[in-house]
Amino acid sequence: QITTLINHKDKPKRSDKTLQAIQRVGQAVNLAVGRFVTVGEAIANENHELKEEMNIACIEARRAGETIAQLTDVASLDHPESDSHITIFTDKTGVVKAARLLLASVTKVLVLADRIVIKQIITSRNKVLATMEQLEKVSSFQEFVQIFSQFGNEMVEFAHLTGDRQNDLKDEKKKARMAASRAVLEKCTMMLLTASKTCLRHPDCESARINKDGVFHRMRLALEQVIEIVTDSRPNGENEMAPISIYSGIKEFKNKVEGLRENLYFLSKENLSTMLEVILEHTEDFTDSAYTSHEHREHILELSKQAKMELEQLVSVWMQAQNQKTKDLMEDLEVAILKTCQCMNELKREVHSAATSLASDLLKYQTDHMVLKALKITGIEGNLEAVAEYTCKLSEQKEQLVEMCRLLRHVSGTEPLEITCIHAEDTFQVTGPQIISAAETLALHPSSKIAKENLEVFCEAWESQLSDMSLLLREINDVFEGRRGEKRVYLSLPRPGKHNANLKALKPVKLDTEEQAKIAKLGLELHLLTSDVDSETEKWEDQENEIVQHGQGMSSMAYSMYLFTRGEGLLKTTQDLFHQAEIFATEGTKLASALHAFSDQVHDDDKSLLLLEAEKLISMCRQLHITAKASVQGKSATFTKVDACILKTRNVMTLLCQLLPLCCKLLRKNKAGNGCLKPAPPWREDKIRTGTNAHTPERRAETFGIKSLENHVTNMTFLETK
């Protein structure tokens, strides 16, 4: 509105329509400022320490708004230029000054309000810390129950405040760090409960005390990191060292090399050599690792040697081109640039293959959780010798997983994924010893139900992190292959002049933070379903199978819709989402046609079941298509339509999760010996059967589990009776 006023053209003739429009804009600005200032004054009254500063800023904003209203009060004037009434036409600089004052004062109000939010989070953290200190010192169950109830309420408040702040963060790196810290606090709350109960029941047990101390220490670190992110500071004024990965190093190196096409003098050869040395130093993490295969190690060493040679050749041609810029030399330089970049791409591909193949093998090997099961059994038996044997095995697994996280960080592709890898590494480092101390406590007190419950909680945390790693590995692969993130371009996205003309007439709308929060749970369920569908499609040897291809396409589109619920990805507006839902429904209809064709190959008994499921799919896709095409007006109606589209997409994905294994089963039955399925080991079948429980939204949520916290508080009466 202000821009409209300042940029208006001074014409000799001014119509009544123009004068009325200017006055309406001025009044609209003044009214908006009035509403804004009212909120600012209310905040000031609730926060006395900033009341004076806030009130001054509000007064300045109100005054500026009134000045703009006065200067634009021109509609009723026959002679706007009259000296008796100063207007925007006689004093345009006055409007500019008022606009500057308004923007400055509004900014000040926002900054002060932000300081208040930060103070609320710090105050909430301090309450949590104070109550934690009391919890550490309690000596009776009754006292513990009372204090933990208070602690639970304080953690719920902290969860709400930090959740809102996380949604407000624009920096994806900070957002990822905040999500990691809040995930730690969520999991540690339950650990703190069982570890403290175990310590109270067995006060003389050293392993129980170590177990409890570890939980308290980790929660304090997580609370401190939240405050660092919120206040944008580091303890003792130290600077945050950004983790350097091979991917980011190669990306920067290639940008510098390719920059030589435009400017031969913008950097020195020493700079390029140093950058390559840093990258090759990081590849030693792979070549020195005991878990890197011999083949990968040899390839990485060969490519490292080749990269040095290509850079030497590039530098030689580059130096000649600086002295004599001939056509032949510039062509040689172009060839050297291309060969250097190609070598770096091959190195990037090799380290990615080394890291992801190691991760895939490790995660498959650990899916049965044999060591955890053995620790529980031997602990209940009180077999200290066997517990010691299995704790050694768990320590070995922990070292393997930590190494896996370090290597994955190098190839993660984005800063948020790098941070997730670091968080996973920390989780394995800490949770491993905590499981060991919990198992030792149970072995010393085999009849203790509370010690058994405590071990279960820590084992669940380990299993949950392994499950998270499977998702993380998939996301890293997707980024590498260009299927996820901002680089991905899905063909169904609306593009100017490419799709139906109705898109032009509709005004694109973005969801605000509150609306995104409302559909976050639906979006998360959609995310988990895409994982399940991908898991099913990966079992097919014939990846060209029509059923598989349609399933993969639908999964990719559903993932884009999930990213939309987080305010990420390429679906930027609600119209993008609706168009994606239409294409998703069309793809589902195509899948139904493929199922009809496949039904001709199966026996009569099975054919009816398959056709019934195909008809369900057609009906669901038709409903989704109708919903996506429906015309709506207004913010509330648009949000309702968004919610309905995502809900119906989720229902289709749920049906798809049932259809894919059914088709696999029928293929095995009808083409015994020639099936298109890989022979699946028993643990994978178990995983699929239990997948629903293991991957529920509550367990997998990236946001703080407020409901689970509230449940802990609600159940305190039950704890007291126990």
Give the topology.
Blueprint: H1 2-6, H2 16-46, H3 51-71, H4 92-137, H5 141-168, H6 172-201, H7 206-231, H8 246-259, H9 269-287, H10 294-323, H11 327-365, H12 370-381, H13 384-410, H14 415-444, H15 449-481, H16 502-505, H17 513-537, H18 546-565, H19 574-599, H20 604-629, H21 635-670, H22 682-694, H23 697-700, H24 706-714, H25 716-721
Helix pairs in contact: 2-3, 2-4, 3-4, 4-5, 4-7, 5-6, 5-24, 6-7, 6-14, 6-15, 7-14, 8-9, 8-11, 9-10, 10-11, 11-13, 11-15, 12-13, 12-14, 12-15, 13-14, 14-15, 17-18, 17-21, 18-19, 18-21, 19-20, 19-21, 20-21
Report on this structure.
This protein is mainly alpha-helical. It folds into five domains: 1-75 and 90-113, Four Helix Bundle (Hemerythrin (Met), subunit A) (Up-down Bundle); 140-231, Four Helix Bundle (Hemerythrin (Met), subunit A), CATH 1.20.120; 246-357, Nucleotidyltransferases  domain 2 (Four Helix Bundle (Hemerythrin (Met), subunit A), Up-down Bundle); 359-481, Four Helix Bundle (Hemerythrin (Met), subunit A), CATH 1.20.120.230; 513-671, Alpha-catenin/vinculin-like (Four Helix Bundle (Hemerythrin (Met), subunit A)). It has 25 helices and no strands. It has helices spanning 2-6, 16-46, 51-71, 92-137, 141-168, 172-201, 206-231, 246-259, 269-287, 294-323, 327-365, 370-381, 384-410, 415-444, 449-481, 502-505, 513-537, 546-565, 574-599, 604-629, 635-670, 682-694, 697-700, 706-714, 716-721. Helix 2 (16-46) runs antiparallel to helix 3 (51-71), helix 4 (92-137) packs antiparallel against helix 5 and helix 9 (269-287) packs antiparallel against helix 10 (294-323). The longest helix is centred in the N-terminal third of the chain and has 46 residues, at 92-137. The radius of gyration is 31 Å and the shape is globular. The N and C termini lie far apart (64 Å).
